[in-house]
User: What shape does this take?
Amino acid sequence: MPLWIARKAAPAVWKRIPWKMVWTVSIWLADKGRDRVKNNLTESEQKEFWTLAKKSKGRPGALPQRDRTRMKNIVGRAIRGT
Assistant: This one.
């Protein structure tokens, strides 16, 4: 994972991260960071991550605000590992 993303992954800072960056990190996690998803998320969070990723059909604007917020929380947790 790029160092500049990891620095911004602190829980307090992560809530202020723009949606475009969250989307970029989610794509990275789905493509190359599968081990982070597997190691840092519970089974239900993993399912929810993949469900939301599939629901978006590759378009970040396809998710409603509620799902975007949930995706932001899941992705932040996957990156931080807490």
